[in-house]
Amino acid sequence: MGEKSIQKKKYILKTAKDVFTEKGFKNVTMKDIVEACDISRGGLYLYFESTEQIFLEVLKMENEEGEDSFSDSIPEDATAAEILLLFLKEQKKELLRKKNSLTKAVYEYFFDNHPPRKSNPLKKQFDASVLIVEKLIEAGVENGEFVCDDCAGAARNIMYVLEGLKISAQTIGITSDGVDKELLFVLRGLGIGTD
Amino acid sequence: MGEKSIQKKKYILKTAKDVFTEKGFKNVTMKDIVEACDISRGGLYLYFESTEQIFLEVLKMENEEGEDSFSDSIPEDATAAEILLLFLKEQKKELLRKKNSLTKAVYEYFFDNHPPRKSNPLKKQFDASVLIVEKLIEAGVENGEFVCDDCAGAARNIMYVLEGLKISAQTIGITSDGVDKELLFVLRGLGIGTD
Amino acid sequence: MGEKSIQKKKYILKTAKDVFTEKGFKNVTMKDIVEACDISRGGLYLYFESTEQIFLEVLKMENEEGEDSFSDSIPEDATAAEILLLFLKEQKKELLRKKNSLTKAVYEYFFDNHPPRKSNPLKKQFDASVLIVEKLIEAGVENGEFVCDDCAGAARNIMYVLEGLKISAQTIGITSDGVDKELLFVLRGLGIGTD
Amino acid sequence: MGEKSIQKKKYILKTAKDVFTEKGFKNVTMKDIVEACDISRGGLYLYFESTEQIFLEVLKMENEEGEDSFSDSIPEDATAAEILLLFLKEQKKELLRKKNSLTKAVYEYFFDNHPPRKSNPLKKQFDASVLIVEKLIEAGVENGEFVCDDCAGAARNIMYVLEGLKISAQTIGITSDGVDKELLFVLRGLGIGTD
DNA sequence: CATGAATGAGAGTTCATTCAT
DNA sequence: GATGAATGAACTCTCATTCAT
After folding, report:
1. pLDDT, position D115
2. What is the pTM of this model?
3. Which of these, A128, A175, B98, B108, has the minimum number of CB atoms within 10 Å of its CB?
4. Straight-line distance from CA A63 to C1' F5, in Å?
């Protein structure tokens, strides 16, 4: 596949992402993507052979891009508490977005497709997030910002609460205030009240 | 619709429940249900006109049956802590069930169908559970079993954690131990360690 | 079939007539008739075995009733011209009726079903009408009301014009004035102007 | 849609015309057309989405072709009477054709579908024909071929008689002689006897 | 006689996928 | 590489017709 087609592949993935964002995973057909990309039916098959493959590559692309953007937004001299707050705000923004990112599609996809635990990209991401939060909490405990005698537990707890909020946002709905209340409760568990 | 057809309707709902349990919501066609029930194509349409209608009636049936079975299992003289533990164990059992109940189908359905918040049955159920847990915690606080200065917040927190565990069980997978760890963490927040 | 069932048969035919009147012939299903009659599916089959059979019996019933009603409305001492006008007015009323009698259903039925010419009930009716009109014209010519040297031809012509008006009413639409213009033109051919 | 598919579309329309001619409108299913064209089920849907759409395009095609073929057949130096006779012969041929053109299908379709009078293509065609005949009669009156003091009325009368003959041909049946008798009667009204 | 549940054939429609150009 | 017409499998849904009660 030459230089030119790599461009096209990226174009397709970017366009497909919008489609998945709007319609989830199962509702998306090859036809939908063909039409969104305004390419020929056969053309799409030159690059991808199923919505599943496209979706997985969209996810991969997302992860690669996503990683950077968060760490980029952290000020050099931020305290642990500040970074944690930033992280939570980011998550909140994400989960409240009306046309909500890929969350729905991701859930839908992984409902039906259970990659072996070890290679489950969702699990990897989850575990990575837990680790980051854990490190943050540990750092915060060390310099007296947080109180916590089970940092790993607290980190996991935060992540599960976030998962709970995320799925609730997609199913029963949730307000900005609703999210704040939960996050505050969690933070109070770390010994701090917040703005 | 006579006595007899009511029986049949129930039979269809019960059979359909298994189908939804196995395949989720979107993957289920009228044909699937027809075949599972071993009735004729047209026969199904005498009772239901879409998988959606069937699914919603399955849910209703589930809720009606579910309510009783839990309260039935509570001993007369149980303490608040005991009841809470019972409740959590029940939830754990539910969320670990391999062919996992209707969870997947429910999520899938409500991803695409957002009933107005007021009439969202999922929300109703969630709120009801929060209330129950809240009352339990309050009772526990009163007789010294729990320590907690925001019972409502704690109850909501527990429910969101449960939601997080539920969705995680469906997507990234989770072990019995993993669930226990989370529940223990939450309970410790109420001032108790557990068996 | 006993006394009672003859009543029921008549009831079905009367109800079915309304259905055919509203929906034509082809659009009517056994189900439609069953529902209109509010009887059971099987019940209908005890009396009739197809919409075709029902329709033909409806037509027979109509003809039997129709014959009397027209001749009843003619005054004893009417002149030929008066009777002819009466006849044309009757036809006009019929063909302008919005929910137009059985015309549509009749045409639809006979498009697909061509009984041998001799036994075609539609043809019988048409020929009978031609004859009546012819006799009227002859009578009118004799007593100087009309001028006409081919009474049979004129009668046939009138009937074909009426057919043309009837089908036009059903397809391209026609106004009361439109009908009047045609009828006047035809009457002028008989040497008379009219009110 | 490229050059090639335009060919195919025409092919489908031509084939479909035969189907409508044979079976009328309501009796024709997408499947019938698919089979007549010997194409795939899905293939037909690439071009048309319903029998109605196909039918209307068949009609349009017919009208476009029909217009030319008649005017082409008129000799340069024909008199008004000659042209009128030609026109009537054409109509006669049309209405006697055993597998009778689209007449039946057209009637069937317009029984159920009443486009607003202004845009009813059937009405347009009817009105256009009336106008043509009227002009012919006027021309004939001017040069002494016809006698007539209400050319418009006579033209309309001729067209309604033709409609009457057309519907009669489809329902009660009519012979070549039968048609001749009617047309002669009408022509005699214009002051001429004919071959 | 009457009921109405049940059956199964058949029409409509959509898409993943292929393939000649 | 790219196109888009074509195919056919799979679903949905509706009724005529039957039959046990």
Report:
1. 84
2. 0.89
3. B98
4. 38
